[in-house]
Design a protein that fits this description.
Elements: H1 2-29, H2 38-55, H3 65-86, H4 89-92, H5 94-99, H6 106-132, H7 144-168, H8 171-185, H9 198-201, H10 205-217, H11 225-249
Helix pairs in contact: 1-6, 2-3, 3-6, 3-7, 3-10, 6-7, 7-8, 7-11, 10-11
Amino acid sequence: MKNVAYYKSRIKTYYETVMIVALKNLKLRYRNSALGFLWTLINPLFMLSIFVFVFGKIVNNIENYPLYVLSGLIFWNFFVSSSNQMINKILESGGILKSVNIPPVIFPLSALISNLINFLITFVPFFALMIFFGYRPSWITLLIIPYIALFSMFTFGFSMILTSMNVFFRDIEMFWTSITPALFYATPVVYMVPADIKNYMLLNPFTHFMELARDILYWDRIPTLGHVVYPILITAVALFAGLSVYNILRKGFISQF
């Protein structure tokens, strides 16, 4: 019973620490900013206007192109923003980790949670914008809740690989920053997957998440079994790989600070 009580106490302490750090990250991000969290809206809206203006007349095989782009762009921005904030969190927290015995994973996890809170807040006006572009909510819209949870877990697992490796190889952050724009265009965020290269595009795990999101928010239909199973399997692999890399490398973190 003592062991159970001890672990429950530890879990509660870690949970409270994660939430405190997450809220602190959220406040610091917009401190001394005139527009605050509105910047989270401005960036994707700016990108949306560019893609609609530049590609809107070229991509004429996609009905309601603004809605199509928006239904993928908001999740892509969440992933990129989260991974970019998580990748350096263990390094930035080196001084604390040297003096306080807490799990290093708390800091990247807090970064993800603060970004998720910010995403959920900004999702409300984005949802209103989607309705403006012609989206009509139905009971299928509620499926976006488990989708966000699944995509957040995938983002965490994937980013933990980068975050853990970045402690030892600082080039990881530079590499990820450089490759992200190319990965954006390799993912069907602003275009529909051409039939003749679909099999190749499905090798990109982000393609599966885009298809699942659009089943819910663009096509307004119940996702097919394949569109559900593959993202779940990809998330399970990402979580296992991310936590495995973290557990293998964490013993050497302190020596790198």
